[in-house]
């Protein structure tokens, strides 16, 4: 796995297989310097954060606090939470104005300067790419807006909601929206901590290999969750909602589902400018993998592809 990232990059793996559970780490938190990476080192998850937002939606729905068909209005168009969680809202990938504010920090921290106030203004002037429910179009805007709306419904912030409904009940002591110990790198240059203040549900979560081992294990066995609401939510996020166009893959609540002869595989990848992540699990086989590195995504996607191959070989 270390051959798929630049020299000096750190890698942490969490593995569940018929042979048991393993936590494997390589490298140091700041490239060639810093403390050795451990199973408790925090990494930026990027879009793997979206799976936590999906679980929040399902958990609040299981408690009767929201419904999947509840709506948020963007440019006078009602979009259901289900539209947002399945990338069928018609929203563009990014909200209006974000690229302009991101340009000075495009290769380091592009979301950092985009404020909640700017997002509020953008919602009135957003133009949908297509009618809600018509097409699948991956949208950071959509899932980020879902996370924000869920937090507003709960009367709190997204980081506080994440902690109270997921991290604390599951014992994920290193999973939050605070800067992690692993310093992200782009082309072997260190970067500042990733910030995404207006849309944290799309990509602000940090986690550790140890926490992701627990996170994936409870997805494999929802009945082991500490509350009935989380058990129901863990089952809910795995239910296929639609078939991807020109593909056999399905979309669940955020998760991608791929049918294979060995059983359905659910997976998601993520990246910030300085970190890359991949998680996957197969309920039938009882296998799971989380792969984390403090090197930004490569154009060839080699780290994620290697992670998927390792997972399929478990």
Automatic annotation (TrEMBL):
Q: Does the keyword tRNA-binding apply?
A: no
Q: Where is the Beta-lactamase-related domain?
A: 12-299
- Enzyme Commission code(s) on record: 3.5.2.6
Q: Name one GO biological process term.
A: antibiotic catabolic process
UniProt KW keywords: Antibiotic resistance, Hydrolase
Q: Which GO terms describe its molecular function?
A: beta-lactamase activity
Pfam families listed in its UniProt record:
Beta-lactamase (PF00144)
Has UniProt tagged this entry with the keyword Hydrolase? yes
What top-level branch of life does the organism fall under? Answer: Bacteria
Q: Which family does it belong to?
A: Belongs to the class-C beta-lactamase family.
Q: What is the name of the protein in this document?
A: Beta-lactamase
Species of the source: Kitasatospora griseola
